[in-house]
Amino acid sequence: MDKAFHRFFKRIIPSCFLAVAGFVLLAAWLDVFGLFGMTQRTRVYGEERISKYLMAFRYIPENFDGIILGPSLSANLNPGPISDVRYFNASLMGARIQTMVPLLEQVLASDHRMRKAWICLHPYMTQQEGVEQHTLMRPSSYWSAFGSIHLLRVYGFALLRWLRLAPGKYPPNQYLENGTNQFEPLFRVPNVAAKIEAEKALVNAGDFEISPVAEQALNRLWQLLESHHIETTVYFHPVPLPIRAAHAERFRRYWEEIKASYPAEGSRITFENFNQPKYDFFSSDTTNFIDHGHLSTKGQKRLLEELNRISR
Fold first, then answer.
1. What percent of the chain has pLDDT over 70?
2. CA neighbours within 13 Å on the CB side: how many for 11?
3. Which candidate, 110, 102, 119, 108, places its Cα nearest to that of 68?
4. Cβ 58 vs Cβ 14: under 8 Å
5. Contact between 67 and 177 (Cβ < 8 Å)
6. Buried b (16+ CB within 10 A) or exposed e, 78-92
7. pLDDT of residue 277
8. Which of 15, 43, 116, 257 is the one with CA 20 to 30 A from 156?
9. What is the spatial distance between Cα 29 and Cα 90, in angstroms, rounded to a whole number?
10. Hey, what's the torsion of the CAs at 45, 217, 64, 144, to 10 degrees?
């Protein structure tokens, strides 16, 4: 019995070692996060947060010199048409402001310099309730690219998209190589105006409170952008006019608080409020939206034109 066990043990250990080594080599060869320098073209297939964080090690800083940070409201902005700066859209679905900091820190840890940044802000990102954890976004997550549950899930999502097994839920080209999330077909509602009216009634005073965690994250964000000499436009995402008009004073005070958090001696960051009367032409046009806040293709194009003009 002992001899048979020893024979089995001697066979199984090398086999396991070869299997693990083979999986690691496969992961490096596929290089879905652009971590190993095997590819200059990749995209998110699933597990968006860990995917974009791992892309921040090499893929983003080595292939782009501009970055877009924000929640889902900016995630579908496609900066591809902009010729003078190569922007990567690092926005994350449902992200809070504190989620943006570790991602930006990792991008800036590279020797490659980021020239410009666009930061999308909205009360959702800084509010008191639902303070979000970002435990996946830490340097030790690097090793998950060699083999982890997250990696296996990414491969699974990639197969679903490549083989078009569930195109209604996992569209093959949902994510572009510049990080843009083309989620419009998934988010679009039949009646945008009705959705906006319904959302108007759900807004309350607590939505505009900036949590202590968010305040710390804002301070760290300003520090990172200034210390790395990144020309930055921080913008207040356009809110549909009926919602804004119903809560105008709260939106105004919120934006003043955001600007007040930026040090007076700072010089690299400019602020643009798309929720002021001169932009009513945009926020009053429901065709610029696909629901109560996310932009349509038309709305994205118009906003990109304004951002590009402002940041020149």
1. 86
2. 6
3. 119
4. no
5. no
6. bbeebeebbbbbbbb
7. 95
8. 15
9. 24
10. -40
310 Cβ contact list (under 8 Å, min separation 6): 233, 235, 270, 272
pLDDT of 298 > 90? The answer is yes
Calpha distance 67→86 (Å, rounded): 8
Q: In what helix (H) or strand (E) does residue 67 lie, and over which residues does it extend?
A: strand 66-69
The Cα 210–Cα 198 span in angstroms is 24
**Which DSSP string corresponds to 196-211?**
HHHHHTT--GGGGPPP
Helices (H) and strands (E) in the chain, counts: 13, 5
Query: Residue 61: exposed, middle, or buried by beta-carbon count in 10 A (0-12, 13-18, 19+)?
Result: buried
Whole-number Cα distances in Å, 214 to 119, 126, 262, 266:
14, 5, 13, 19
Structure tokens at 167: 């195109």
Instruction: Give the residue with greater pLDDT, 167 vs 272.
Output: 272
CA 238 to chain centre: 18
Apex 254 CA angle, 249 and 260, nearest 5: 125
Beta bridge partners of 101: none
Distance of CA 89 to the CA centre of its chain: 6
The SS3 assignment for 308 reads helix
Residue 67 has a CB neighbour count (10 Å cut-off) of: 30
Bridging pattern class, strands 87-89 and 116-121: unpaired
d(CA 15, CA 39): 30
Ordered domains of the chain (ranges, CATH)? 64-133+172-310 (3.40.50.1110)
Res 213: pLDDT = 92
- 36-71: per-residue pLDDT in tens? 776 678 999 989 999 999 999 999 999 999 999 999
Instruction: Point out which residues pair with 67 in neighbouring strands.
Output: 88, 117
**pLDDT band, residue 286 (cuts 50/70/90):** very high
Nearest CA to 282 out of 243, 244, 246, 240 is that of 240
Residue 129, classed as helix, strand or coil, is: coil
